[in-house]
Amino acid sequence: MSKPTELVQGTLDLLxxxxxxxxxxxxxxxxxxxxxxxxxxxxVNQGALYPALHRLEQQGWIKAEWGESENNRRxxxxxxxxxxxKFLQKEEANWERLSQAIVLVLRMV
Amino acid sequence: xxxxxxxxxxxxxxFRKSTVNGELDQEMRFHLERQIQExxxxxxxxxEARRAASLEFGSVQSFREECRDKRRMNLFNDVIRDxxxxxxxxxxxxxxxxxxxxTFALVIGANTAIFSAIYGLLFRSxxxxxxxxxxxxxxxxxHTGQEHIGVMEGSxxxxxxxxxxxxGMGAFGGVSALGSMYADKLWGTxxxxxxxxxxxxxxxxxxxxxxLGQAFFPRxxxxxxxxxxxxxSSVAILSYTFWQQHYGASADAIGKTLTLNQFGERExxxxxxxxxxxxxxxxxxxxEKPDVWLPxxxxxxxxxxxxxxxxVARLQPGASLRRAQAELNTISDRLQREYPKYYKSEYxxxxxxxxxxxxxxxxxxxVLLVALGLVLLIGxxxxxNLMLMRPFLARRKWRYSRRSALxxxxxxxxx
Lengths: 109, 415
Known about the structure:
- The structure holds two protein chains of two kinds.
- By secondary structure, chain A is an alpha+beta fold.
- Chain A has helices spanning 9-22, 27-37, 46-59, 82-108, and strands spanning 25-26, 62-68, 74-80.
- The longest helix of chain A is centred in the C-terminal third of the chain and has 27 residues, at 82-108.
- The relative contact order of chain A is 0.16.
- In chain B, the strands form two sheets. In chain B, strands 5-6-12-9-11-10 form a six-stranded mixed β-barrel. In chain B, strands 8-13 form a two-stranded parallel ribbon.
- The longest helix of chain B is centred in the first third of the chain and has 47 residues, at 46-92.
- Chains A and B meet through helix 3 and strand 3 of A and helix 1, helix 2 and helix 3 of B.
């Protein structure tokens, strides 16, 4: 297994918001999903995940609600706010542009 | 509305700190459990699974502490930081700071002083027993359109005996109920003595009794049309200061004679009582504090139509102002039928005594309030101007120093 790539803070926010956009999830599910969809490359650990979630909540991009999980335990579910949705759209477009630009520069060399 | 979402968490942390902390714990525990389950499903033995999961969990603990502290400290830190920045700025511009502080001090000090003085004067609580139930009665005339005039002299005894909403009624005044007090003099001297006439019940209505001697008797309230009763015009009650000054504050003042010069006539009065210190009714409704109270009498045979009684009354414990007014309306209707010549368009109103005191000054008070408000605004505008001026002042200083560097000494103070 290759070493998990280090994630920049802003990128992690983006991943979390995208994951939540599909459906509201609790912290554990978000980490799982990111890992699964990225083929085990991106592994977010608790120490990074929860601070990020807290920060996103403070900034008003996501909101949290307590609910029942799959195994009937209480868990905190996070969902996107309307401001968060707009923010996500903007950030996705930015990321798209940025990564294309990086690829161009890399190819140029 | 992003601000709404943004403030949700901080507000929650502020007002429900314990639950927010507890929630974080619960969330962590849930994650830990799921991680352990995952590890076991991946084939790890249970305790290995638990240990592996807890390893990650450790890094979260510090986050938790950080979270808790951050929530509490953020607001506090911001305030401290702002205060520090403003203090630093003020210290750098000490001239500006001093002038602003002085401006505000002057404005606020002046406002407070003036307002306290006015407030103390006008809104002071009446020093009479249970002042909330003291009221005044005033007449009005629908025909002439007059309002707030003295109660008709002839109606007073009828109102006093028949209006059951009142526990007592007293009148004061004389020739002109709304005018200034008589300027009598001490007989044989030029010394002014301010006197006011009042009926016997006035003191009991106010709840104050003479501490020496006694008040007037009810028989002092009436006079026989065909010859003055002996006690009329010949008893007097002194005020405390008058008693101190003229009778040496001695108890044997009772029974002594007070001789007054009333409109050039020599009148003798027997002193029957002294009021306690500080009692000065009807001040401040009249312009002076009275030295002597004399009896006020109405005819018990003739209906006198003069509007010259200022009436003070005390409401019964259960009565309301509205009920009293209704009763007065009934009585004045009756009086209209009985004395159509004098009482045709007359009516009686009742108002709280407290509002009488500030009645005349109300407009002045409002004007003063607005003026003080404007002074405050001017002070703020001045400080605002100073703040705007600051960059210009600084630039001038710099220009000065440049000049002197170029032109050298002596440098003339030309701008």
